[in-house]
Amino acid sequence: MLDIEGIMLNGDVYLNGEKVGGTDYGYLGFEADITKRINYDGDNAVAVYASTRGNSRWYTGGGLFRDVHLIVKDSISVARHGVFITTPEISAENAKVNLQVEIEGFRGKSADMEISVKIFSPGGRLVGETKTIAPKRSKKQTDEVPLPVVNVADPQLWDCEHPNLYTAEISLSLDGKIIDNVTEKFGIRSIEFSKEYGFRLNGKKVFLKGVANHHDLGAVGAAAHEFAIERMFKKLKEFGYNHIRTSHNPYSESFLRLADKYGILITDELYDKWSNKDYWAGRVPWTDIVFRNIPEWIKRDRNHPSVIMWSLGNELQMREDLAGFPTGDWGVTTYRMLDILVKRYDPTRKTTVAMYPSRAGGISKNDLDFNTKILPPELATVTDIASFNYRWMNYSEYLKHAPDMIIYQSEATTNERLAPYFGMDREKMVGLAYWGAIEYWGESRGWPNKGWSFSYFDHALNPFPQAYLIKSAFNDESMVYIGIVDKASESMEWNEQTIGTLNISDHWNREEGKLYNVFTFTNADKVELLVNGKSFGIKKNDFKDVSKRNQILWQNIPYVEGKITAIARIDGKEVARHQLETTGKAVALRLEPENNNWVADGMDLQYIKVCAVDNKGRKVPTVTREVVFDVSGPARLIAVDNGDHKSNELFAGNKRQLHNGFAMAVLRSAQSAGKVKIKASVAGLKNVEMNLETK
């Protein structure tokens, strides 16, 4: 079997000149049986046709952007995505584990075939077993076979802080011989939704604190490199995030495996609009393909404990012709049909649709009655979870008309900062996802921007100062952070929302004698601001105004070379401080590798940051010279970056301008282990080199 996880935007696969399979919606994969087409005595040629013709509002990438597998198995085997594991009953003493195994190739056969499962704890200890005999003389092409329930004593639950993963090993035995064996990771956890408490994980209230982004990964584009995904998860966890909405398509299988590993809660989304024309990235009409996409999607992703919701679409009530089948009810009938199909393959999770911020009847901001008819869209009142893009200030009014809605803010604007978070009823609602919290490619506001940049992190995952504002709300730890205003903030209209960004940075290398506006972001009661020990007063955190909470503005602070310090206090006691210091002239470079376990598998990445430093080793943020990288050994340089979303430089090659004193090299390991040397040089600065090793 050839297993192709995705071809962007769509494509076909040929073996020795003969078509063996393809995908009409490239975010989902397929399997091709090539048994009878292989030339077993000679060479074989696999050719892949990929087409990027189609509609997309964002950067999709192209070609083989996900993994390809060659699978060899018996003709009687576990079917594609054929294992389904659920944990319907959990207590501190015991967890019931239900298993279903779908088998293929056994149609009409009467032999005794045993299906057996062994369950291993996160530490590798055998904790449960179950078995059954496959149905004989079945008339089905594939058979979904339930096994007796397994009881796991003293279960180690999966949650955001302790993402414990069990392993199920499934075997098929015929005449005493094992003919197929597959393993599946899963988590023991429970999920519940209610209008009374929003969302509970393992019986405990959890508020989703997340991002909604597109799937690209900065300099490596849409290619699903596992380490690139992993470093994103680590950064988000560091800043208090626990959730990602996969806008607006299924992400890679490796993405979900890593979400399981890091305890990230996922809203798994299938589509953008429900349309055969506009916004549709498929090769055939949406109405022809949707019923093939849903089984592949659900069966592929249903064993991941990180997945807590299925989202079937995005922004449907903006136009009636984007809401699916032409039933004249804003997609209500379409949703009900799709919901039945989803629950055929997974009855354990709720479904939703992320709604465009319009009203019932498609009323938009340009309509005269927009501010008087504050009624929720028809579709949002029938979905399991009512998901709204923006409009947090209207949720209480929506609930007056549809009090049974369970509300999730599927997109929150970064421009409003903490208002969407503090403006929600966090005790009763599910959570929120900040749109474009990480810069992504496409949907820019015009050249020289290359993509979305109203964000909290640049595309290299460097946090902007306002990222710490969100951290002040998402984390319980007391903190304060300084951001200096560089220029006026930017804004524009998008989806009936005013979006934009603060143009601030976190350094104290400024223009002598000039006055600056300064933000301090804090979750403490009060902040005192000092420049070289001189106090500019103490200001209170305005906890009552959601638009100002945790952000204090200081105007006309004079720049003087030295130190600017913010001291945060609660009840008069210092709980945190942040300090920026004027640096000296740049004299050298510093390299910082990120991957401490670089594997020689031909796929693993190493990210190496480079920055200009002064004679005290402090980063100098004003250096903009070109850095040249030289790499030798069993690895190759696949991208260079500096986090500048407006840069016209290519990611290919070995040269990149320093941006804010920063650049980065991305290396990909070879399949042979060994020592790798990287050298970085900048004219006028002391060069630096580093020896690394792949294992």
From TrEMBL:
Keywords: Glycosidase, Hydrolase. This is Beta-galactosidase. Residues 513-576 form the DUF4982 domain. One of its GO terms (molecular function) is hydrolase activity, hydrolyzing O-glycosyl compounds. Pfam families: DUF4982, Glyco_hydro2_C5, Glyco_hydro_2, Glyco_hydro_2_C. Residues 589-690 form the Glycoside hydrolase family domain. It comes from the Bacteria. Residues 86-189 form the Glycoside hydrolase family 2 immunoglobulin-like beta-sandwich domain. Belongs to the glycosyl hydrolase 2 family. Residues 198-350 form the Glycoside hydrolase family 2 catalytic domain. It comes from Bacteroides reticulotermitis JCM 10512. One of its GO terms (biological process) is carbohydrate metabolic process.
